[in-house]
């Protein structure tokens, strides 16, 4: 019976997510033109209104759907002391699109609006690209080694771009979200990297270091998050069909080494080594946690 009802549930939930995305997106598009004709506090107020729709409406409703309309059990630990009046840098492992939905379920009601580092090319993605631009997500342009060799001034440009973006936030609290591995983990990518971690890809310390330096004194804590899918891996379609038995989200607050807030990752060897050691330690502990969860929860399908 579940084999029949599961796909029906999946189709209905996909349709529901699409409908409410268009619904809330329409409100954001209606407000968006005001961003071009306002300045100062008025412009900030316009952006905050769009943030509220995206975060407190769209993300919250996604979380409600997954908590109440799928049978997946949610085990969320370490979020008791989170506050919406603090700014966080949220770093996490990356397995699939399910990670974004797990983030919405776990943190939306407890942290300030999300800001996710986005590749510059995604600004052209219909609807989504324009919405994340409207609510001031930081867009990043990646430069190849050849481009940097031809134009050394490109070094650090992402940091300056991010700093200018954060200056727009003023005193507003935000949650910066960063997948430290830079891409979703798959067995093929894991093998190609020859990763030293059993369950993770190699972390990219540079991105975290740039984010911490750009945020500066506005950063209250680093939120280290581990996503784990019992008996996984699972696709988002599996999640919507109700096939995922349990999702475990482990969070802990950390303080970044002071050197990362002021040091230059690109130009200072000491800062680079400090960032790499810090992230490597976090990743070793995360890998051990995932192995522990794997041993505790693995059951035959």
Structural description of this entry:
Helices cover 52% and strands 13% of the residues. By secondary structure, it is α/β, with parallel strands linked by helices. The chain has a single domain, classed as Glycerol-3-phosphate (1)-acyltransferase, CATH 3.40.1130. Helix 5 (128-134) links the parallel strand 4 and strand 5 (139-140). The longest helix is centred in the first third of the chain and has 30 residues, at 2-31. The protein is globular.
SSE layout and pairing:
Elements: H1 2-31, H2 34-37, H3 40-68, E1 73-77, E2 88-92, H4 98-107, E3 114-116, E4 118-119, H5 128-134, E5 139-140, H6 145-150, H7 157-169, E6 175-179, H8 187-193, H9 205-215, E7 221-229, H10 236-240, E8 246-254, H11 258-262, H12 269-297
Parallel strand pairs: 1-8, 2-6, 2-7, 3-6, 4-5
Antiparallel strand pairs: 7-8
Helix pairs in contact: 1-3, 3-4, 7-9, 9-12
């Amino acid at each position: 019976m579940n084999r029949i009802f599961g796909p029906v549930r999946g189709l209905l939930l996909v349709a529901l997510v699409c409908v409410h995305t268009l619904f809330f997106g329409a409100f954001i598009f209606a407000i968006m033109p005001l961003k071009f004709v306002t300045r100062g506090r008025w412009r900030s107020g316009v952006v905050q209104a769009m943030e509220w729709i995206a975060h407190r409406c769209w993300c919250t409703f996604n979380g409600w759907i997954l908590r109440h309309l799928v049978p997946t059990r949610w085990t969320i630990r370490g979020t008791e002391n989170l506050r919406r009046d603090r700014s966080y840098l949220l770093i996490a492992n990356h397995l699939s699109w399910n990670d974004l939905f797990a983030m919405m379920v776990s943190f939306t009601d407890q942290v300030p609006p999300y800001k996710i580092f986005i590749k510059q090319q995604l600004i052209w993605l219909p609807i989504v690209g324009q919405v994340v631009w409207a609510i001031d997500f930081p867009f990043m342009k990646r430069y190849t080694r050849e481009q940097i060799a031809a134009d050394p001034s490109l070094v650090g440009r992402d940091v300056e771009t991010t700093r200018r973006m954060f200056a727009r936030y003023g005193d507003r609290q935000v949650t910066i979200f960063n997948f430290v591995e830079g891409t979703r983990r798959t067995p093929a990518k894991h093998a190609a990297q020859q990763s030293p971690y059993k369950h993770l890809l190699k972390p990219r310390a540079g991105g975290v270091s740039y984010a911490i330096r750009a945020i500066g004194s506005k950063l209250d804590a680093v939120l280290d998050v581990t996503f784990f899918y019992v008996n996984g891996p699972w696709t988002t379609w599996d999640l919507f069909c109700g096939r995922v038995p349990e999702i475990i989200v482990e969070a802990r607050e950390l303080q970044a080494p002071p050197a990362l807030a002021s040091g230059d990752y690109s130009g200072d060897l000491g800062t680079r080594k400090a960032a790499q050691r810090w992230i490597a330690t976090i990743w070793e502990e995360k890998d051990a946690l995932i192995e522990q969860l794997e041993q505790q929860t693995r059951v035959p399908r």
